[in-house]
Amino acid sequence: MALYSRAAAAIRRRGGVSLAPHARTMASLFGHVEPAPKDPILGVTEAFLADPSPDKVNVGVGAYRDDNGQPVVLDCVREAERRIAGTLNMEYLPMGGSIKMINESLKLAYGEDSELIKDKRIAAVQSLSGTGACRLFADFQRRFLPDSQIYIPTPTWSNHHNIWRDAQVPQRTFTYYHPETRGLDFAGLMDDIKNAPNGSFFLLHACAHNPTGVDPTEEQWREISYQFKVKNHFPFFDMAYQGFASGDPERDAKAIRIFLEDGHQIGCAQSYAKNMGLYGQRAGCLSIVCEDEMQAVAVKSQLQQIARPMYSNPPVHGALIVSIILNDPELKSLWLKEVKGMADRIIGMRKALKENLEQLGSTLPWDHITNQIGMFCYSGMTPEQVDRLTNEYHIYMTRNGRISMAGVTTGNVAYLANAIHEVTKTK
Length: 427
Ligand code: PLA
Known about the structure:
The protein is α/β, with parallel strands linked by helices. It contains 18 helices and 13 strands. Helices cover 47% and strands 13% of the residues. α4 (75-84) packs across α14 and α14 packs across α15 (329-359). The mean pLDDT is 94. It binds ligand PLA.
């Protein structure tokens, strides 16, 4: 209605000259647009923020909190910011982003002494964090390998499906998790790798699988890598939690290093959201291993060409923070200490949650809380049980039963355990 009367007023102003067809369609131009469904992860944060209850707890999104439930800015990041302030300009970065930041990122993922880096065989661009790296790769895949598909684990981070859907790459799934054992379904995984057509693209979580917290062992990674070689599959690693699995970024790169040792060409999405706490800075890196330097130059130029009409060039501040920290031995060791501190606090909260449940007399098995690794506990709770946690206890988490252990604190763990016990116990 408002649109019609505004259109009528505009016609009067034009001296009665009606641009009628346009004015008539205006009100209904977007009439067919339905509200989008809420995002299964970020929608939880919206609901949490809207809840006035003083008891509310957010264990939805994977965002690290200190033991007082407050967001954390790492000391190494604060120091890097001090060095940036007033000394560096804010000019555009090149389309492919900061070269320094890319070089440091490659060392982190591929190893300080990587031959691939020395031989300039890696095409890499700074990306809009891990999401942007995945999306850029998906767009590249669609453009240059239009007949390819992507195999995605079941389950996975929900946004993986959106990313490859919007890039119009057909999706297949592969077996990953075994609901009964709450561990890896290794046999199912290997079967699916063998049964996929030769040369398929697979999305692998490099470490700290989201949402399950279940990673293959080193030995299992070796077998997976071997089978990929036999099948000539292309592994694309999403590494959003390097450092959060073991507390040591170097150890968490093990799966990637195994594939590199076996001579695979890989793709890799890196994110500094979690391990440097740079969530909103959108700092990440996409890399693709090529056959030689010439191919790497070509691939990088194409990645830049995909970025140019989308966002032109990536943001500068996060890139400066990352390159300053990783380039300075003192700041880097402070960072490593701080990553370990975050990982350790989460491990401590896993123990505390499990112990609280046992003390409350829960007879259900809760070993998976401490067996799983990374930010999340894939609790095994049903969507209905999660709804009860939210409706009766103001505890916010994703309906797949994933608990972000990064949001659990000494202050809320007993409350959380009690609520979980209440909704899971069989009377
Ligand atoms: N890949 C995986 C496996 C992730 O879990 C996430 C973030 C990303 C990529 C992307 O992160 P970035 O773009 O911020 O670097 N997953 C979060 C947040 C932490 C989210 O859903 O966006 C999660 O709660 O699952």
